[in-house]
Amino acid sequence: MLTDYATIGLFMLLAVLFPLAALGLAWAVRPKPQDTPGKLTPYECGVDTIGPTWIRFKVNYFLYALVFLAFSIETIFLYPWAVKFNSLGLFAFVEMLIFITILVVGLWYAWKEGALEWY
Amino acid sequence: MENVELLFLNIAKFIFNWLQSIGLSPLWADFVMLVIKFACIAGIVTVNILILIWLERKVSGFIQQRLGPNRLGPFGIFQTVADAIKLLTKEDIIPSRTDKFIFRTAPIFFIIISLMLYIVIPFGDGMQIVDLNIGVFYFLSVGSLATIAILMAGWGSNNKWSLLGAMRSVAQMITYEIPLAFSLLGIIMIAGSLRMSDIIAAQSNVWFILLQPIAFITYFIAATAELNRGPFDMPEAEQELTAGAYTEYTGMRWALFFLAEYTNLFAVSAIAATMFFGGWQGPFLPSWLWLPIKAYLIMMIFFWIKWTFPRIRMDHLMSFSWKVLIPISLANIILTGCGIHLFRWMGWW
Predict the structure, then answer these.
(1) How far apart are CA B313 and CA B82, in angstroms?
(2) Domain tally for chain B?
């Protein structure tokens, strides 16, 4: 018998075949005309592209990612707690309330400091 | 009735026994069964997208008082088949300044992720590829990988539209992932398990939509944003970013992105049906019909919302999640906890 995770791993290997089969089929039937330089330029509404694309980006995205990180770690803490909620009793619930409160304070701070503003 | 209910399970058992009778060890028989199951999933995904795109175009047509596709076949049902053939025969353009490896792998990566979601979907009673003990968590963590695929597509394209679309998409998806994860927590607290079959079993008396209505609304909004669907389709706002991260893609590579989006749509709706609407449970019809029926009804709501509301501005979109959805979903967790303790204290549960 395959274990759960072995099944998932094998399924992933099989899943790789699906897009490869689709692309292979498309490769077999599609026309392959000669490439011209004009065709291979980036699409920018017919205008020649100006300046590099891979530049430093807005800092907003980074701030969001930081706040997201804090909350996704909280998610990892909350899930096992939620599974065992029924057997843990009132003490664990109060403890988790305190934990959530700390995070809400963090969210409030990020809000106050303007990390959640998009400009 | 019994036979109809167990139709697929009996076929699977028959094939498994036959494989063992021709001399395969149980391990290899299991492997061959997995290949067959994968082929079924691939078939479901392919047929599903053909139906879904036709349905979406038809529904949007009716919402806008048009007829929608109506030329190919009765009610235009072969329209998407013709579209698929057309996409198959399109030439494959890889622009000269792209990061070629990332550009080529992004659609493959995206579709693999969306196929991986189907492992934990319970299509019927006992019809699940793996009934994983952390099913819900697996769904959330694998689903969040789609962010990387879109970022790969946007970055690899070396196109300003693509990069802007991808960046917006990443910001939006990570933001809405938090309310998505939080909204399912209340259900897990009541069901006491992350296993899909346990969650369905916990709904044999009352569906969780009645116990967790706030969670369903936050889940639904967050899922719409996760799927980059309207009214949250800022990342590929076609009037301003051409096609967002997918601008440079042509032919089959573009089709793979499209396929993955609709694959994700079905997966998210099926999970919503499992978590909130009792999964495959239902009267009269066999269980493997109930889940698609429920999932399609949920998808109809997705279509309805997409074609009713205008697109939301980016800053409104982001602040809505941080300042409204996350506090609401956190409050819902606390409310659920208080509710469970109150019920237990009163001795009702």
Answers:
(1) 35
(2) 1
